[in-house]
Amino acid sequence: MSPAHDFVLTTARTVLRIPEATVAPAWLDYLQRNAEHFASCSPRAASAPTLASCEASLRAARDDYEAGRGLRIVGFLRDDESHVLADIGLSNIVRGPFQACHLGYRLDRAHEGRGYMREMLRAVVAHAFESLRLHRIMANYVPTNERSGRVLRSLGFQVEGYARDYLKLDGVWKDHLLTSLVNPDPHFDEGR
Ligand SMILES: CC(C)(COP(=O)(O)OP(=O)(O)OC[C@H]1O[C@@H](n2cnc3c(N)ncnc32)[C@H](O)[C@@H]1OP(=O)(O)O)[C@@H](O)C(=O)NCCC(=O)NCCS
What percent of the chain has pLDDT over 90? Predict the structure, then answer.
């Protein structure tokens, strides 16, 4: 596996990286600008984010990647890496007979409705299947989050079930639709 600072995925309009702690001010600005927008899909934080907590979370993302525990990446517009556009995570990576992970994603509200998330997630899904050689990506969403449902459907994720009181978001246990995407390559794990 390449070191975290070499990790990069590029799409037509975006670039995705595991950022250095120097990105913390832009990361903090992204979280503050979107605090209300992200509240309904995030656990209630014990305290508001600070520069120090942002530096720590970026350091933790690099450690997780290097330990093979997960992939937490930050997306930027290709022509402006001074502002954070989105963050995407592959978490709970389980190997053995499961070879699966969970997918999470958030996009700066100011950039909704332009297809950036689909574009970035296509690259992340390709990385999960072709480089990480995972078999299944699971993504779950609150049924009223129609934007999220449309993004997942556009990528081929299929609904597999309905989980009551699945995650405690913004202090409330919320039902979720459970979806997943399975690696279409039947030989993805040959040579492992
Ligand atoms: C969920 C979320 C990422 C969806 O964002 P989004 O902007 O709707 O998704 P995309 O960036 O892929 O944009 C898709 C939209 O852009 C439109 N679009 C415009 N130009 C486009 C282009 N060049 N290519 C593709 N789509 C384009 C599409 O038609 C689509 O609109 P529609 O859903 O009304 O049909 C965003 O609402 C968000 O971050 N919400 C808060 C966090 C959250 O809920 N995360 C998910 C938790 S499960």
Answer: 92
Query: How far from 122 is each of 8, 10, 46, CA to CA, in Å?
Result: 14, 11, 33
Alpha carbon of 148 to ligand 1 centroid (Å): 7
What the block records as the tokens of 84 is 């954070």
Test site for ligand 1: of 147, 174, 175, most ligand atoms within 8 A of the Cβ: 147
Nearest CA to ligand 1 atom 32: 113
What's the pLDDT at 1? 73
* DSSP, res 107: E
157 close to ligand 1 (CB < 6 Angstrom): no
How far, in whole angstroms, is CA 154 from its chain's centroid? 16
pTM above 0.90, yes or no: yes
- Name the helix (H) or strand (E) containing 128: helix 116-130
Q: Are 112 and 147 in contact (CB under 8 A)?
A: yes
Which residues are paired to 167 by β-bridges? 174
In which residue are the tokens 């992204």 written? 30
Looking at ligand 1, which atom is closest to the CA of residue 106? 39
